[in-house]
Amino acid sequence: MLVDFNQLPDESRVWIYQANRSFSEDELKEIKSKLETFITSWTAHGKDLQSGFKIVYKRFIVLALNQILNAATGCSIDASVHFIQELEKAYNVDLMDKMNVSFKQGEFVAYKSLVDFKKMAKNNSVSKNTIVFNNLVTNIAEFNENWEVPAKDSWHSRFLK
């Protein structure tokens, strides 16, 4: 059951998929349509899942699920992963690789491998005040408060001096 992302409770579970590039406007329209279709039919053991999504900075797909109403199951999570993999193939984009880091460079969102991010930290090209995206947040409340934060306030801090 598709609902507006902003109408979901703060406890709703989130999954964040970061793209290795920005989506074009045409791609965004298609992806939004595909997300709406997927979420409308997303179920767990035949029960509708109250879910929403948002696409942030033309590169992050955020799925949210109100688990108070109906919780995700292994099969429903597998279905969402399969859907994301289909998007990867359709748009020739990487959405599943968790070994990459996104962070802000001025108004732009940079995307680097973890190895390159570590090198940048060592060379002081990024600092404790660099805004990073903590894709490990687990619910909407954490997403709103701790997703886009200075590196010093995230797991990224372990790489900074």
Give an overview of the whole structure.
There is one protein chain. The protein has a three-stranded antiparallel β-sheet with strand order 1-5-4, with helices on one face. Strands 2-3 form a two-stranded antiparallel ribbon. A two-stranded antiparallel ribbon has the order 6-7. It contains four helices and nine strands; from the N terminus they run βαββββαββαβαβ. The radius of gyration is 16 Å and the shape is globular. The protein is an alpha+beta fold and 161 residues long.
**CATH class (first level) name of the largest domain:** Alpha Beta
- Low-confidence segments, given as residue ranges, are none
Count of all domains: 2
Give the quaternary arrangement of the chains. single chain
